[in-house]
Write the structure tokens for this entry.
Amino acid sequence: MANADAAHPFAERVFLGTVLTLDPEHAVAEAVAVLGERIVYVGDRAGADALIGTHTQVSELGDAVLLPGFVEAHGHPLSEAVFISPRMVDIRPVVAATAAQALAILHAAIDVAGPGGVYANGWDPLLQVGLPTPTLDWMNELCPDKPFAILHNSGHSAWFNSAAATFSGVTRETPDPVGASFGRDEAGDLDGSLQEVGAAELIFGPALAIEPDEFVALLAAESRRLNAAGITTIGELGFDPSSRARLDAARQAGALTVRLRLYEMSTAAKTSAAQPGDGDDMVRQIGIKLWADGSPWVGNIATSFPYLDTAATRALGLEPHHHGHANYTEAEIEEISEAYFVAGWQLACHAHGDLAIDAVLDAWERLLARHPRADHRLRLEHVGAMTPEQFDRAARLGVTTSLFIDHLYYWGDVLVEGLFGLEHGAVWVRAGSALAAGVRISFHNDGQVTPPEPLRNIEIAATRRSRSGRVLAPAERISVAQALRAQTLDSAYQLFSEHEVGSIAVGKLADFVVLGSSPLATDAVTSPAGSIANIPVLETVLGGKTVFEASLVEPIS
């Protein structure tokens, strides 16, 4: 056992074994030492000896492997904490795989509901085939005397009964929020449907009205879900400043065990009371979220190509050869972007359709010409239909992209057979084209749309395999090593946090995940489905402290 002095104190914890650092200068190591919240040593076993004292916790990894904690560049942990809590009825396809199961859950919830009614989350007629069309008459018949509302799994549309409208104060006179709308019949009365976040917030407001004390427990549960997946840092891409007090209270109560990077939702005021960079290494506000279009699963993305005419598109209520649309004009995108950009903010814009992406790139090219910024890291989010030419253009502009790669796993078959055909559906989320263009990419799960599963993201990026085993556009595959980087260091880069997280290097925060085996040891393409997605997360460490443990990295001293 080595001796230490005041200048070189013993480490509090040392990991020995296989370390995948994701540091381009030092990719693999044998030992990592931690003192306080920071990494103080990365190297071979011999070099770690001098840092091991009587009270140092030493963990022999054995067959396990240590990596930097996963970074999710695009999530919604503050709303997901509520939407998959007991406050909401969970009918997502990952919970209710069939229409019959989803409907049974709804009926059971309505039967026992109190006067506060039933607010449900996760309706998805593409995956839960056979769901009825949730008309106002159907909603009122199912639940005639209590508020009842259902949010689509994408979060981009919803349905509500008359009692829910009354309870939330929404009437025929209620104006459509900017970038959102309420459905109306020929007489102008509400028809019980809505599109986009601004309208959904008005209807679901009663369900989201949570006191700080209750939010502590909900955020603690959300943090545990993320930590169990190995996630230690996540972007909150829908931050509402009105939730700051309850977030602060939950953090003070110890409920937050994942680092947050906040993107405030853009508003009609086009200003923020915060300043870029407000906060610390645990919670920091860094950007503004804006939208160009909506969701492919509800038909409101702006594409140059039409939807197919199939049973799937008819289930969505789309006319034959339907073309989606943008929610904001190019001029509006430019105006919103400029207002926040000149105030110093990073921008992250939701854009799925190729026409929406063109509009954003056009607006941002003019913006950057007027207001050059050397390191702006403007972000495009989801980018399902982004073309190789658009990735090339993004690279020239310095625009990064966050890809919803898990779409291929859950909706890959429907993209080809039900929505867009081989030409446009199979090439959805072109990770290979993005990297070939030189764009730095990240992956995300957009909680609560799909579960937090960074390891599945890595596998799907390397295989492009759907749940049925269909391979979609194999030329767009990337390597497991590239996918790992997209889930760690390059995600951190998009969050302006690569100096503190995303790789294992001296001086960085001691945020780690211990996996049962190395993703790099698997040939994802030739191995059975799940070979990477199902690697167990054994431990997650945040700032040197264990925040999740499933098992078996045993201290030896």
Q: What stands out?
A: The chain has 17 helices and 21 strands. Residues 407-425 form the longest helix (19 residues). The two ends are 11 Å apart (CA to CA).
